[in-house]
Amino acid sequence: MSFNIEVIEEEKNQLINRTEIKFRIDHFGKGTPNRLDVKKKIAAMKNANEKFTIIRKLRTKFGSAYSMGKVYIYGDSKDLQFYEPFHIQVRNLDAEKRTEIYRLKKRKEPYKHLFQYE
Length: 118
Known about the structure:
- The chain has 118 residues and is an alpha+beta fold.
- The chain is built from 4 helices and 4 strands, in the order ββαββααα.
């Protein structure tokens, strides 16, 4: 899927060791792009590790041809795991890993290795 990403605001948060980016995606005539596709494209734009890139928000108003969003790019996995809630971390994974994590969590079995931050 082809879409254009425009960085509106970029800020380095030294205290948390992350870069906070607000962006706009133009996707005229198409639906809202997939979170994982947006994550890959932003990580490539910023030369960042895709595993430490978290799409925090992606919103499209009804009937509009653009989406607004917020992404956090962390410096390391410890900060990411500390500051990001579980559901946001899971939301930024592909569908197979997501279902596997929820299945293992329901059974009370270990699942943290599926995030593959290390």
